[in-house]
Description:
By secondary structure, this protein is an alpha+beta fold. The protein folds into 3 domains: 16-159, Creatine Amidinohydrolase, Chain A, domain 1, CATH 3.40.350; 172-316, Creatinase/prolidase N-terminal domain (Creatine Amidinohydrolase, Chain A, domain 1); 320-597, Creatinase/methionine aminopeptidase superfamily (Creatine Amidinohydrolase). The protein has 19 helices and 28 strands. Strand 25 (519-522) and strand 26 (526-529) form a beta hairpin. Helix 11 (268-277) crosses helix 12. The protein starts with 15 loop residues before the first helix and ends in a 6-residue tail after the last helix. It comes from Rhodopseudomonas palustris (strain HaA2). It holds the Pfam family Creatinase_N_2.
Amino acid sequence: xxxxxxxxxxxxxxxxxxxxxxxxxxxxxxxxxxxxxxxxxxxxxxxxxxxxxxxxxxxxxxxxxxxxxxxxxxxxxxxxxxxxxxxxxxxxxxxxxxxxxxxxxxxxxxxxxxxxxxxxxxxxxxxxxxxxxxxxxxxxxxxxxxxxxxxxxxxxxxxxxxxxxxxxxxxxxxxxxxxxxxxxxxxxxxxxxxxxxxxxxxxxxxxxxxxxxxxxxxxxxxxxxxxxxxxxxxxxxxxxxxxxxxxxxxxxxxxxxxxxxxxxxxxxxxxxxxxxxxxxxxxxxxxxxxxxxxxxxxxxxxxxxxxxxxxxxxxxxxxxxxxxxxxxxxxxxxxxxxxxxxxxxxxxxxxxxxxxxxxxxxxxxxxxxxxxxxxxxxxxxxxxxxxxxxxxxxxxxxxxxxxxxxxxxxxxxxxxxxxxxxxxxxxxxxxxxxxxxxxxxxxxxxxxxxxxxxxxxxxxxxxxxxxxxxxxxxxxxxxxxxxxxxxxxxxxxxxxxxxxxxxxxxxxxxxxxxxxxxxxxxxxxxxxxxxxxxxxxxxxxxxxxxxxxxxxxxxxxxxxxxxxxxxxxxxxxxxxxxxxxxxxxxxxxxxxxxxxxxxxxxxxxxxxx
Length: 609
């Protein structure tokens, strides 16, 4: 009945093939006179979604998560993952060949200090690590009296005989009706930032920054309309964009050439060397610029200025056109979500649906809008114990039937040309337990606390993060991920620099879009997450002595009333929930058929204590 066009459910490779790869890789290491090598889950630009040709970590280890790193030594190997992926890594990786270690606390450098020996030569690919990451590895090697060695070519590629070719997705023009600002206006603002930084030029090493600056989109990676590319923006004169010409139609090339020179990627290094040769100060993004770029500028006589990419903050603050576009996208998405949630309520209790069925149905309802370009990430559809795996990806092998008594956690998003969506709902299948309702209500109260927050200019995500966790902490529980991330405008669903987390140090500004997604995960039991997207807006507070901000909720989808213990809610929390559901009903109901309208009326009916 339904099918998915934008994601697959195949099981990652495992077993004998991976064992043979690790053995072949070790032979290649020894041949290159290395006693160890670091394999990050990264491409040259530190993208979240990387092209197939850069999935070296998955190819070697079997781990398919979006963040991780491996270190292979002659007699031992370790995979480093964060809290989101601990369960997934244990399932995907051969525990006899690899140990699973923390990517965060303690960091991998502590492991290197403990396991490297005097005289060891640890190799790394300088195109796949930032300079700060290299400096941390260098310090760890120094403590162990080992040598850190930058390699000319990656030894993984030396044994990956069937490595895919680099992508050649066609570039499209992101018109003013969607972007709301011309390339010339954006470049003028970027040059203002160059003056502030006292830089002669800026390297755009983040393809998202290139796409935003030049109002283009692409098709080089999964789920994000990204044209893999670089650009150099000088303080004076025309910028240069470095992109494979085979990706450009005549129209796309003409569009770019109105404001920039267009060059092949191979010309990036000589262009930077020529700039640096004059002693220029060249700004590099510390989060995405490869260490190879820092070395190139420094070795040619230039001054690398490492710091935050100024374009990231410019891009994060959406203009009026982008805000109106994302609101339209969310209203469109809400219709698909209502149809999906009604379908689940109708079909799941009889035990006829699986996790994959849910993924395929939701994508089909989104495709019915006629505007879906892609899903914004692989849909997380986890029921029962699979729901407790924070970034679970269903495969045909792991696919579980949805049964009465389960919770179904479904986290999904869509890419529309006018906006990017991301929403999570947790659905009770049949009668939930008292424990499920308690945990769900605590998560909901944290979600409402973020949605209702009022905060002064200059407030960071770290200052708000506690609001989402307070009711979980009161029960001695927590969740091991951030509360929220930034979201792009028909770009990455995970966009910096702002986030709501313990590590969120960027002040939240009006026009930013962030997720609000506290959760709770009971290992081998169930998972709960409630996620809406929020727009930072001005809040008028009577008697306020400084500018105040708050959130406007963009997502429009019912929150499962069957899981809410109303006795745990305050009057203000209950009022917020009823007002939210009334808004969902008013904005979405006119676009639904009769049976789905009836379902929505029930799903959004006011709750009383």
